[in-house]
Structure formats: C-alpha cells, structure tokens
Amino acid sequence: MTFWIRSRGAATALAALAVGAVLSGCGSRGDEPDLVNGKTLFVGEGTCGSCHALARAGTSGNQGPDLDAAFGPAREVGQGAATVEGIVRSQIEHPALSSSMPPRLLTGSDARDVAAYVAFAAGRPGEDQGALAAAGAAQQSDEPAIVEDGVLTIPADPTGALAYTFPEAEAEAGQIEITMPNESPIDHNIAIEDDAGDVVGTGGESTISVDLDAGEYEYICTVPGHAEGGMIGTLAVE
To answer: What is the side-by-side order of every strand in the sheet holding 151-153?
Structure first.
C-alpha cells in the first residue's frame, strides 16, 4: 500500500487535503476504529509497511513517503488526528496517479482502522504499548532453522508480517537445498546472493539450491520493499 502524500512541513497543506476527504465522506465513521486491527493490517496483510516507514509500527519501506516525516511536522503545530485519518482514508480510496497502490486496496472497517492507526502513530514519539505493541508482530523462532532430510526449510511468516519464521539458520558447507513455504497472504520468495527462488503466493514454495563455502550469508525476499521491511535472515555455514 503506497500513500503518495507530500509533506511540506505545514499544517495548511494537510488541511487542504483533508477538505477533500471530508467532502467525500472518507473521514467519517459510525463507530470507533480498531487500532490493533489497523496496525496488524499495516504491517502485515495490507503490506503498507513494505512501502512506508512508520517508526511505531517498526516498518522501514521506502517506495512511498515516510509517514512520520509526512505527518510529524503537522502534528507538532497542532494538526488533529481526525484530519490525518481523513487524508489517509482519501488516499486509500483514490490513490494518486503516480502511486503503485490500486484503488480501494482496503475497504470498509479495514480501511478505517488502518487510517486511524496511521493517524495515531505517525510523527508520534515512543513505542506502542499493551495489545497494540504485539499487533502484527512476526512469529519468529528463538532457535535457528537446521537441515532435515537434506532440506533447509525457512517458512515465510504466516501472519503476513514481513519476516521469515527463522531469522537465523545453520547448515554445513556444500550443496544446500533451501525451501520457503508461504502460508501468508502476501507473495514472497527466498534468495541468497545471485540465487533467487520463484516468487510464490499463498500455499506455494520458493526453492533454491546453492553451493556454499563456510561463512555467513544473508537470505532475503527480493519482492520490492520486503527485505527493507525486515524480511531478511542470517545463514551460518560451517
């Protein structure tokens, strides 16, 4: 999800955009937003974090604007969360022509929740607390992945978070087959140096066969923005 919002460091610029959101009805809601759902979608299924940096969400995508930089200056001069929420809702509904995000990627309460979370978090120092802190967190193992039956299996995080379930892996030098099952709702692959597996959707497997000397290697997802968003791990080869 890519919000092409240009920050000029002035609240008036954001206010002008907000007028369009209000006139189109995008800034209204009939009930309270679910910030936990909004953050989960932002960092996971909505893939917003693969394109946008947002410190409180822990994302560092760079294909779209940095949302802290876009909304932080306006927040500092008193711009309200409702205005930011309206702008984001409007961008989800009608992305700019230069944006790679399709219109209405999220709809209904999901669009409302994501917009409300961005309005809550953008340009705001500190860390999320309680249930919000755990929302969208990757399900990663504390133990490294190891070779079993000749195959090193490193699944994509099934929640949609930009991560592998094993941030570390171990193998012996030589020919290594590595497979990445993908049960997440987002397309992923696995790659080491110049060897990259196919990008696969839900239920697919991305596989590579590599001949590695002893040393330390990085495995990454080569889908644009995913490695930058955190989909990266370390393979120790002995």
So the answer is: 147-148, 151-153, 174-182, 204-212
> Of all residues in the chain, what percent carry a pLDDT higher than 70?
84
Beta bridge partners of 204: 182
Domain interval for residue 16? 11-126
User: What domain count does the chain have?
Assistant: 2
Instruction: Name 237's Cβ contacts closer than 8 Å, sequence gap at least 6.
Output: 170, 171, 172, 173, 176, 212, 213, 214, 215, 216, 217
Q: What pLDDT shows up at residue 13? A: 39
Residues 163 and 116 in one domain: no
Answer yes or no: is 40 within a domain: yes
Phi and psi dihedrals of 78, rounded to 5? Answer: 100, 10
**From 43-47, 88-92, 141-145, the region with the lowest mean pLDDT:** 43-47
pLDDT higher than 60, residue 44: yes
